[in-house]
UniProtKB/TrEMBL annotation, chains A, B:
<dbReference type="InterPro" id="IPR000551">
    <property type="entry name" value="MerR-type_HTH_dom"/>
</dbReference>
<dbReference type="InterPro" id="IPR047057">
    <property type="entry name" value="MerR_fam"/>
</dbReference>
<dbReference type="Pfam" id="PF13411">
    <property type="entry name" value="MerR_1"/>
</dbReference>
<dbReference type="InterPro" id="IPR009061">
    <property type="entry name" value="DNA-bd_dom_put_sf"/>
</dbReference>
<keyword id="KW-0238">DNA-binding</keyword>
<protein>
    <submittedName>
        <fullName>MerR family DNA-binding transcriptional regulator</fullName>
    </submittedName>
</protein>
<feature type="coiled-coil region">
    <location>
        <begin position="96"/>
        <end position="133"/>
    </location>
</feature>
<keyword id="KW-0175">Coiled coil</keyword>
<feature type="domain" description="HTH merR-type">
    <location>
        <begin position="21"/>
        <end position="88"/>
    </location>
</feature>
<dbReference type="GO" id="GO:0003677">
    <property type="term" value="F:DNA binding"/>
</dbReference>
Length: 147, 147
DNA sequence: TGCCAGGTTTACGTGAACGTAAAGGTAAAC
DNA sequence: GTTTACCTTTACGTTCACGTAAACCTGGCA
């Protein structure tokens, strides 16, 4: 299975290639995640790539999805949480209940994110402090050494 | 085992009580974490409360430590990472190597935090978007209902 | 005196998110 | 034609961060 967008095709359409696809290996390298994980995300219902033969073929949208999953992880979202968000987002059967569930979810997430912002802000200043003290001590050491 | 700072002592020293202590149950309630977790953190070398009899007694410093552990968790730090930071921070045997290890660690953490900031920023605006669209649709629904 | 609310240790169980073989299919390359 | 580089499924193993149960101790109080 070779990449079908390997720049070696023609030089005809460099701008309007709107049907780019990726193999699992490519996505793996691009986004720095193991194939095992990607398949696991699919198993959990977070991805649904097309198949060609028995191989998975990922579209640009699939790629975006995967990136969203990863970002979610970086922010401490569980896979099932991310899935719920996807489902709410995808469902265009926008019932009133669904919309309100969505709003509740976003509010809750927003609160957590604000907490994280505060945490980061505090930790950043502490890191600043630690760093400057480290540098001071290193200066002391080097100063003593040069004498 | 009763609390030794239960405000029922005397009304003498309300300002300069510098040796406040906490039971595990108090810390548990105050910081919203189970006793099991607190003991687990100790088992992992993140806390080292005094003992009175066989009961754990936590000082103000212990409490701060615990809060730091929890903040670390909120930011996606593993317990062993937090422990490493503690160890580096605690060791006043500031060898050049240790200081540099510390600086490297802070730099690395800082990068991750910046990534998180960016992630949060993006997700926030997306939440804004989703929310406003939700509200629009809800308005549509309610509008249609009133006719 | 008896009991209860807290604390303790020991130890096995659990859920999430994968890691890691094992065993095999397939297509291009040599 | 066979090696190589990917891909596949199935399934058991693993790490982290606890949960949970059992069995016990211990000070205060009704």
């Amino acid at each position: 299975m070779k990449d079908n967008h390997s720049d070696t095709s023609t030089f005809a359409d460099s701008t309007l290639n709107s049907d780019v696809t990726y193999s699992i290996g490519e996505l793996s390298k691009d986004l720095d995640v193991t194939p095992r994980s990607i398949r696991f995300y699919e198993e959990q219902g977070l991805l649904a790539p097309k198949r060609v033969g028995q191989s998975r073929v990922y579209s640009k949208k699939d790629r975006v999805r995967l990136k969203l999953v990863l970002r979610g992880k970086r922010l401490g979202f569980s896979l099932s949480e991310t899935k719920t968000l996807f489902n709410l987002y995808d469902s265009h059967t926008n019932s009133k209940i669904q919309l309100q569930a969505m709003l509740e979810m976003t509010e809750q997430k927003r609160a957590i994110l604000n907490q994280q912002l505060e945490d980061i802000r505090m930790l950043m200043t502490e890191l600043d402090d630690v760093e400057s003290r480290c540098r001071d001590e290193l200066d002391q050491i080097n100063k003593g050494k040069s004498e």
